[in-house]
Structure formats: C-alpha cells, structure tokens
Design a protein that fits this description.
Number of domains: 2
Strand order of the largest sheet: 1-4-5-6
Distance between the termini: 83 Å
CATH topology of the largest domain: SH3 type barrels
Length: 142
C-alpha cells in the first residue's frame, strides 16, 4: 500500500510534465503550420502575380485622388480616428488619435511612400498637446 501511495505521488508530476510537453508540442506544431501556410500563401501570391501581370498591363490604371503635400504647408485632417504614429509606416507605435478638423503642419515629406511628418498646430480633439510630432498617411489630409 505504501508503494502505491509513492507511485501516486511520483506519477502526479510526471503526468503534469507529459501534459505540458504535449501542450508545447501542440503550440510548436501550430506555429510550424502557420509559417508553412504563410510560405504557401506567398508562393500562390507570386504565381498569381506572374499570371496577373498581363491582365494588369492590359487594364487602365485606376484614377485616385491623392492630396499634394509639401513641407512647410498646413493641412487639415480629413478622417476621424487617424493614428498619429512614432515613425513613418504601420510599424510605428500609435502616439494618439487625430480627428476631422485637426490642423497639422507638414514638417517633412518622403519622395517614396505616402507618409508625412507632422506637428500639431493646436491641441487635438483626441487630447494630444500642441506641437506633438508624429507621422500620418498623407491620403487623410486635405
């Protein structure tokens, strides 16, 4: 009977370890499947891109209205909840939100890309203080 109790006590940590190992293997398996899925999706996108080149070349380019932005000008935000980011691009963390009617001063533009560096002219409707610097996508300015 004492042996059975000892086995029960020793079996408990072993059981937990086995379950943890199974769980971690499941998580690793999901990560591998996710990465494999991304690789397959990228390969399909490349193949479709190669096939779609001829169709895209034949179709006329869509007309889009993009606001011309030059450094030193003042623009108005034309969106509600526009994210003011710490650096140009979607990887920059969000400093705060700008709302329709907020005024910004364009301090820098980029030859490539659609991001502009801005400075708030007044306190924003989202609560950001005057002179806060950040980056926004220029398509949301007028």
């Amino acid at each position: 009977m004492a042996r059975q109790g000892e086995t029960g006590r020793l079996g408990w940590p072993v059981l937990v370890a086995v379950r943890v190992e199974r769980l971690s293997m499941k998580i690793i398996g999901e990560r591998i499947r996710r990465r494999l899925g991304m690789v397959v999706a990228a390969a399909v996108a490349v193949l479709l891109g190669v096939v779609g080149v001829t169709a895209a070349a034949a179709a006329p380019a869509p007309q889009t209205s993009v606001t011309r932005v030059s450094a030193g000008s003042t623009k108005t935000v034309d969106a509600s909840g526009l994210r003011l980011r710490s650096k140009p691009g979607y990887s920059g963390w969000v400093k705060g939100l700008l709302y329709r009617g907020d005024r910004v001063f364009i301090r820098e533009t980029y030859a490539r890309g659609a991001w502009v560096g801005v400075v708030l002219k007044t306190r924003s409707a989202g609560g950001l203080p005057k002179l806060t610097r950040g980056y926004v996508h220029k398509s949301y300015l007028r």
